[in-house]
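[09:14] KT: can someone run the structure on this one? pasting the chain below
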Amino acid sequence: MPEDNQHTITILGEDIALGESREINFNIAKLHTATKIEIPIIIERSKTPGPTILFSAGIHGDEINGVDIVRQLIARRINQPKRGTIICMPILNIFGFLNSNRAFPDGRDLNRVFPGSSNGSLASRVAHRLMHEIIPDVDLIIDFHTGGASRFNAAQIRIVKNHPELDELARIFGAPFVLYSNHIAKSFRNACFQMGKPILLYEGGKSFFVDNNISKVGVEGVKRILAHYGMLHHRIKASPPKMSTVFIEESKWIRAKQSGMFKSAVSVNAKVDIDDVLGQITDPYGKIYHEVKSSIEGYVINVNEASLVYQGDALFHVTKVVRH
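[09:31] RB: done, C-alpha cells below
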C-alpha cells in the first residue's frame, strides 16, 4: 500500500496536517425548509506518516449494522492511528437513514450512480463529490453493508477474483467467509476499483437491525487490518479470528417450492449435508407440512427470516465450492 508522506491532505477543500483531528461536514443538500443536510466525516491523522484508510457505511439508509460498526470504531477510539490516517464516514446516505429508506429522495439507489455527475441527480452529485474530493487521498476502503429485507447474511467479505492483494487483505480481516462476486456497474465498489483503490466490502446481518456478533466480527476485522499496517494504537489489541476463513468459489440459493408460513431450522455459519432439513413451510390450516432440504453440501451464508414466503423465494444461500 502507498505511504502517505504528505504533511497535508485535502478533504472537501479543507487542508488537514499530520497529527490533526478534524470533523468536516459534507454538505450535500438542503431540505425544503432550507435546513442544511450534512454528513459528518471524522478524520484522525497520526503525526507519523502512513497509509490512509476509509471506513464507510450506510450507503443504503436501511443498513444500520454497518453504521454501528463504524460508530464503534469512533466511540472506542480505534480510529486514532499509531501511524497514517483514518477517515470514518458512518452514514453515506443520510436521507435514507433519516427516512428509514434504502434510497435517496429522488428514488435512486446511491450505490448504482457512481462515479456520479456534478450536474446530475442528487444521488449522482453526492457520488461525484465523494469520488473527486475524498477517495483520491485514500489508499484502502472498507465499506460496510448488510443483507436486504429479511435476509440475514453471515459475516463475509466480498471481493473480485484474481487479485492476490485483495485475497490477502480479506484473509487478514478474518471474517468467516469470503465471497467472490463481480463488480456491479455504477456501484461504489466498482468506481473505487476503477480508480485503482483496493476495496473490501463487508456484508453481515440484515436491514433495520443491529446484530452484536456481526458488529463484533466487523470491528475485530478492522483491528486486524490496522495492526497489519502498523496503524493500530498500542492500547488496543487485535485478536486472531475464531475460525479460519472459507473462500467461496461458488454458491447456490435454495428456494421455496411452495408458498406458506416459513420457519428456518438452521442459522448462518451452519455446515449442512445433502438432504439435511433446513426449515419447514406450513399453511395456516394445518394441512400442509413441507420440509425444505439441502440439495448440496456446504455452509449456510444467508437465511431468509421472513415468516411468510412465496413459491420461488430465496430461503438459504449455501456454499457449493470452497477453499480454505
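[09:33] KT: thanks! Helices lie at 64-75, 94-99, 122-133, 164-173, 188-194, 212-228.
[09:34] RB: yep, looked fine to me
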